[in-house]
Amino acid sequence: MKRLTLLVVTSALLSLAATARADVKLPAIFGNHMVLQRDAAVPVWGTAAPGEEVTVAIAGQTASAKAGADGKWSVKLAKLAAAGPHTLTVKGKNTVTFSDVLVGEVWLGSGQSNMAMTVNRAKDYEQEQAAAKFPEIRMFTESSAAATTAQTEGKGEWVVCSPETVGRFSATAFFFGREIHRTLKVPVGLINSSVGGTPIESWIAPEAQKASPELKGFFEGQKQAAKDFDPVKAKAKFEQDQAKWKEAAKKAKAEGKPAPKAPRDPVALNERKGNVGHSSPMRFAARSGIRVRRTRRRTRLYSITRSSRCWSTTGGRGGATTFRSRGCSCRTSAAQAATGPPCAKPCSRRWR
Fold this sequence. Notes:
- The protein is an alpha+beta fold.
- It has helices spanning 2-22, 113-116, 125-131, 171-184, 206-210, 216-228, 231-254, 266-274, 283-288, 334-337, and strands at residues 35-37, 42-47, 53-58, 61-66, 72-77, 83-91, 95-111, 137-141, 158-160, 188-194, 300-303, 311-315, 321-325, 328-332.
- It is globular, with a radius of gyration of 24 Å.
């Protein structure tokens, strides 16, 4: 009897597992309150049972695709005009429904701590919070941890801007998006995928870096450094340095002085240094056609829009800001920047 019961339970669990694998599933970037890019083909993708027919519907149009042998499927919706709210329905053997979907401008904000810093740490936060009544501005904050290999799924959710939520928004992305919203009078979706302290190589696929002739010497040197690195000795020295630092910090506190900088774990630093591509942007960026450029210690915002009246901002020296749109670039002071992009005008050239 026990054996029969075990077989029945096992069969039931396997059946549930098979059902779960068969369900239509989409990445976290698709959710309630999301914003889709206007005036451009909109890709929608996910997983389902191999061979399963999947139909996507929104704003009177539908698109269908069949899941491949690996369970992956994707469709492209025709261009949508700025509008909403809509309901996006994805139907296979099960149905997934996303409500309060807007169509407008979608921007990806990425970089280090300058992009990760939130509005509640910005100047005049109380005033900005009280005025943050922008239901057509939404933000998706990617919350996945760093990984040693490329990931197919991210984590996060779309949040509608309000006095109650704006404090958690990326400050750079929010103030930029607010200007876009006020100028273009369309919904704005902001995607914040940033990690403080990450070098540029963390954001580029390792395959692309290793295929570059210019980086051959770098990887050879890295390989040799890995051979020469002794984690046991490094860890022992780190523990000694940490003990000395604790004493120095204790003394500084007693004397009312700032504490010295704490030593960093050399083993963790070595692993991080050798792990190129560990913060690669989520696949939705590449699949959606978002064009991203990053430089060390700079933060840039790029849109997937074809509109020539959309721009990006780049922090510069002395609090200056560089405004860029396709084919034009101009520099202005932080004070002047508050009044809006000075070069937001049609441009004929495309981004290189």
